[in-house]
Amino acid sequence: MAEPLIPVTALGGTAPKVQGFGPLTLSERPDVALASLAPLRAGQLPDLPLPGPKDLAEAGGLWSFRTTAEAWMILAEGRAEEDFAARIAALAPGCAVTEQTDGWAMIEVTGEAAALERLLEKLVNLDPALLAPGHAARTALHHMGCFVLRPGAGQLWLLGMRSSAGSLWHAVAQAVQFQVVTLAERAQD
Amino acid sequence: MLIPHPLLGLRDAAEFTYLGDAALLNRPDPGAGEAAFCDYVYLRDNPAGVHRELWYHEQGDRSWLVVTRNTLTHEILGAELARDVKGGAA
What we know:
Protein name (chain B): Sarcosine oxidase subunit delta
Low-confidence stretches of chain A: none
Structural class of chain B: mainly beta
Strand order of the largest sheet of chain A: 1-2-8-11-10-9
Number of domains of chain B: 1
GO molecular function (chain B): sarcosine oxidase activity
GO biological process, one term (chain B): tetrahydrofolate metabolic process
Number of strands of chain A: 11
Strand content of chain A: 35-45%
Pfam families (chain B): SoxD
CATH class of chain B: Alpha Beta
Shape of chain A: globular
Structural class of chain A: alpha+beta
Largest sheet of chain B: 4 strands, antiparallel
Organism (chain B): Pseudooceanicola albus
Oligomer: heterodimer
CATH architecture of chain A: 2-Layer Sandwich
Shape of chain B: globular
Helix content of chain A: 10-25%
Largest sheet of chain A: 6 strands, antiparallel
Number of helices of chain B: 2
Mean pLDDT of chain B: 92
């Protein structure tokens, strides 16, 4: 008899991985749907939130950020099991919309805003002001290209290649452990 | 070394890859003849001082920049989007 196919997350579990580190919690977010959007003609923009460089915008449950000139990524929580790109394409006539959900793995870091700021000081090689709430950036993290998004003061989203999800988790977990837990313990000694 | 990206702010040079002299933006007309293409493909100025060069923001928004850099001090004097420069004198 055929074995049933069991869906697994990017980190290989049957349920999303969650791990707490003092004031911060890391969680895998396989529920987040992604689609890239680019107008086929310059200036032919759909009625969707399409922010300028550096920004992360939200409207009606759709988040978006600019990935390159005249191209954006659209993101929605809890919609990974829909045909998300088709639904976005219906809202964006004259745009090239491509499904991205399974190409990426998202790791969410939540918790105290102050602890998150301490983490950001070392996690990515960017001025922390570029990652204030409502901002997005693409950068390299442990030699992996990543999108770093800050939807709220106590929330950080990291999008990395799905094939290196384990390396991304390891890099972030190590940074959180050192910046937030180990340094706090040393400060007490 | 930090490069002031015109859209994204100060970014570390490690996010970029370097191509070379920004004169590469000025490709000769296809009918300009072999001598012009020989110059374009092979000959570069190698100034000790201010130099305009192409950098690609590979670990960022994939834009091409024209960066003005002093080759003696590595001081970055400015950066523009190559798409804005193209057509002008590079």
